[in-house]
């Protein structure tokens, strides 16, 4: 029973790990928002907006993207903290199950974007640097293995608790 409990609790560690794996992307987006300015400029020019409007919009994005990235990281840290705490205390099957379903969807969409060569919003080819892609995919792989192990442990713990 102790092994099943540890396996179920270990998903709290997986959650924190997956949060840390996502930090380089968020930091890169906050530090260098010029990539989104370039994409917006292309879209606005294709729509035929006046140059003054394009300049105003891209100037605003230079302030909005870093602030939204910082806020998003802080919000996601709070969510991950709460989920990790709940998983550590309750050792539920629900949190790892939902996380795995969401991760499977994210992987499927990531592969679809890479195969098609275009982002879903048709802004152009994906713009993340290769090192971020490599870190993200490696981190997701490790996190998925840990999540599957945690889910199996939580399911075993649930079965053991139901037995008389």
How would you summarize the topology of this molecule?
Blueprint (H helix, E strand, L loop, with lengths): L1 H30 L2 H14 L3 H40 L3 H23 L13 H33 L2
- Whole-angstrom Rg: 20 Å
Task: Outline the biggest β-sheet.
Answer: none
Count of distinct strands: 0
What is the general shape? elongated
In which range does the helix fraction lie? over 70%
* Count of all domains: 1
Helices and strands: which structural class?
mainly alpha
Average pLDDT taken over every residue: 85
N-to-C order of helices and strands: HHHHH
What's the multimeric state? single chain
Describe, in short, the structure shown.
The protein is mainly α. It is built from five helices and no strands.
Characterization of the model:
The structure is a single chain. By secondary structure, the chain is mainly alpha-helical. It has one domain. Helices cover 85% and strands 0% of the residues. The protein has 5 helices and no strands. α1 runs antiparallel to α3, α1 runs antiparallel to α5 and α2 crosses α3. The protein is elongated and about 75 Å long. The two termini are 14 Å apart.
